[in-house]
């Protein structure tokens, strides 16, 4: 399978399902050109021989090198693809077959094209996948909406999505002039605003999670956190502009998990803010990005976003300058269900070796290690926003029983 970025073949990817081995080999011409030399900053060696990977067998990576596995659909998956497989009695496909389905429609800038010599290692056939993909894309081209409203969204939702995550998400593109919306994984033109939409399908949780996330977006903006412009559609669906689609171009983005191979699900020993800062240093991001990362950490702790795991922090590649930057923040929300009682909640990322009862002292240990300027000022700036929660919640008509539970959780922090 060819791995393509920015219209260039970067290398070839192979997978041996019987031996659980993935293979990657750089295209020698790409290596010799010296172009995009920091595209894969860790794990892949910039050498011509084939590189073999056997250590990434966890569910998160499915045997693939982590920066490639970042392209796989996540928990929510691809509705049509899953239905198609189930209808044929196929329980599992190889990761390469999944990537063949992702093709050029995935998140980020990496694209995948099946090579003719790719062996079929299961009962499923790559050509068959390409045929079904063409049918799906035809269906997507015929499916659109006149405007950004619920009916149009649900039409697009029915035909599936390659965005991941635990909640139903769809990718849509809204024409800047006409307002018409189409499925968002087939178009990268600057004529469109490209959104990731988290759908509120029903009230089975007892409240609207998407509204809570929008409230957190507003608070994060007030805190000076770099986050993509977002809005509520029909006062219930959360829509955020995609940072992997900007200026009419695909942006190469990798999560911390994708960059490092640290599994966000099964490796608590690697799941720490210190490690996220170390990745930032390894990527040589500007110091302002470290300041920003510190502010996000403080916001997540104070506003009780405990689900800030390694896949919820990403970096974005600047192909013109061959440099990396911290990507805009995303998935900032109160991640627990406020209608349940939680005695103690453990953070996804530890701070100074702790997952509970974080103090200002713990923040300052991180600040000292990574030379953060004015950390106490940053902490104070975020803390002053705590009373804003109830005001924002009231403006958005979030039910009082929900907003009050969250208010109790986002109290100040000990010294």
Short précis:
The chain has 415 residues and is of the alpha+beta class.
Question: Roughly what fraction of the amino acids lie in strands?
Answer: 15-25%
How many angstroms does the end-to-end distance come to?
54 Å
Number of helices: 14
Return residue spans where pLDDT drops below 50 for at least 5 consecutive residues. 116-130, 157-166
Radius of gyration: 22 Å
Account of the 3D structure:
Helices cover 32% and strands 17% of the residues. The protein has helices spanning 28-33, 66-69, 79-87, 95-102, 126-141, 150-158, 209-222, 256-260, 273-282, 287-302, 360-369, 375-383, 388-395, 400-409; strands at 2-5, 8-16, 21-26, 51-53, 110-113, 144-145, 169-175, 181-183, 192-198, 230-233, 237-241, 245-246, 249-250, 253-255, 314-318, 323-326. The strands form four sheets. It has a six-stranded antiparallel beta sheet with strand order 6-8-7-9-11-10. The chain has a five-stranded antiparallel beta sheet with strand order 4-3-2-1-5. A three-stranded antiparallel beta sheet has the order 14-15-16. Helix 7 crosses helix 13 (388-395), helix 9 runs antiparallel to helix 10 and helix 10 (287-302) packs across helix 12. The termini are far apart.
What's the helix and strand layout?
Elements: E1 2-5, E2 8-16, E3 21-26, H1 28-33, E4 51-53, H2 66-69, H3 79-87, H4 95-102, E5 110-113, H5 126-141, E6 144-145, H6 150-158, E7 169-175, E8 181-183, E9 192-198, H7 209-222, E10 230-233, E11 237-241, E12 245-246, E13 249-250, E14 253-255, H8 256-260, H9 273-282, H10 287-302, E15 314-318, E16 323-326, H11 360-369, H12 375-383, H13 388-395, H14 400-409
Antiparallel strand pairs: 1-2, 1-5, 2-3, 3-4, 6-8, 7-8, 7-9, 9-11, 10-11, 12-13, 14-15, 15-16
Helix pairs in contact: 7-13, 9-10, 10-12, 13-14
